Amino acid sequence: MNSDTRYIFSTGELFQKDFSIVFRKEDGNIYFPVKDTRELYCFNEVTLSTKLMQLLAKAGIVVHFFGYYENYIGTFYPKEYLLSGRLTVAQALAYGNNRLTVAKPIVCGTAKNIHFVLYHYYRHGKSDLKEFLDWLHKSVPKLVDDTGDIKQLLRIEGAIWAGFYQTFREILPESFAMNKRVKRPPDNPINALISFGNTLLYTKTITEIYHTHLNQTISFLHEPAERRFSLSLDLSEVFKPILVYRTIFDCVNNRKITVEKHFNKSLNYALLNDAGRKTFIEAFDERLNQTFEHNTLKRRISFKQAIRLDGYKLIKYILEGKKFVPFCMEDKK
Amino acid sequence: MLTGTLVNYYTHCRRQCWLFYHHINMEDNSEDVRIGRVLHELKKQDKKEIALEGIKLDKLTAEYVTEIKKSDADIPAAMAQLEYYLIVLRDKGIMRKGRLECIEKNKQNKSIHTLTLTEERMGELKKEYRSIEEFLNSDVPPPPPKIKPMCKKCAYFEYCFI
Q1: Pairing between strand B97-104 and B64-71?
Q2: Is residue A170 a known part of a binding site?
Q3: What is the pLDDT of residues B51-60, one digit of tens each?
Q4: Which residues of B touch A85 (CB under 8 A)?
Q5: Residue A239 and residue A271 in one domain
Q6: With contacts defined as CB-CB under 8 Å, which chain A residues touch B158?
Q7: What is the pTM of this model?
Q8: Distance CA A208, CA A202 (A)
Q9: Of A55, A76, A97, which residue constitutes the final position of a domain?
Q10: A187 and A142 in contact (C-beta within 8 Å)?
Q11: What is the reported pLDDT for A159?
């Protein structure tokens, strides 16, 4: 499967030549054709000019920048090309009047997809997972249903994730065991992987929302003030288990990523090194571009497209009142 | 205000017409649309394109208004668009006949179709345009139709059927 995302790991200069994007690094030039590029990721010191930005903006190419410590710096977000005043107004009204109607399915969907991921391990002999799986399956929908306000809903969501982290000692080797989720900055290898993976997914979702009419700042589960583009936090939520965590489990359990080789020793292994970052991104990108038969559309789509389709579902709810049900791995829709 | 494109879409698919009018247009990667756009650009170079009040004419001669389409996939929709052009021109005192040129003929055995407006037809159309305007001002788009073969090529396919 072809990827339309270009990842830049070395230092160099990005510029426009004819109608292509060129990356000049120490050992030569690389050409990125504009037509098959949708997204650029810069993980190193990269110089670029406004002339190039003009081309990027015209072609609708989104660029995400990361700093030396894998920290997300920001996104070059080209001028919007899909705008609908009618939808923007309706999105804001939906936030005001029906916030929970959108937020609840996100929490339920997350629980479902975590269930899907863990069930695999349960089937392969991790019987201790049963209790948590039952809770996700039976109790969570009821808890969510009974909730009348967003704070309570967020507490349920917190409990789901906390329970999920607890299961890691069952399914991951001891060197990756996790006591507690620590963010900004992460303090051990597993937290580093989660932070990095979540940020990657957050930026991917920004790009997908860019290609819809949705307003990136009006979110439902998360507070619109939480981040600049908080809708991306909402829409990426249900995809975390199946995209980020499955990539982590695959990399760790199949020893594609190990603590000794792929983390920065001088930083107490709390950060991926160059090799680790590349391995993780490769595995993540492959998963994102993996295709499957969509059960409603009856055509093959990639997970990346599935993120955008969730954007369409949200538009359909906002505009036409069709019930919003985010992507569910089990139903493949 | 109505445009030729809207009248075409209204005949082709009402849902598409409503969405397009409300600027819910989809990112389009379809090769057919790209070809259509390039054809339009090429025609523009031939002769000056004439644009007025929501209509863009591919060609205007002493006798005909000509609309050029890539294919004859939806002749009734293209004809409706042409009729709209004729009426707009007529309201300005310009009388012409309509001429539709399809570059590819896949369904029909001729590539050129002509049309002449009658007084009676004009009255019908004026009424129809009022109902299109009313339709566009409704709050919700009409629900997606049952999947038709033509839907599979449409940029709205995913949005309609998700």
Answers
A1: parallel
A2: no
A3: 877 788 888 8
A4: 23
A5: yes
A6: 297, 309, 312
A7: 0.90
A8: 10
A9: A76
A10: no
A11: 96
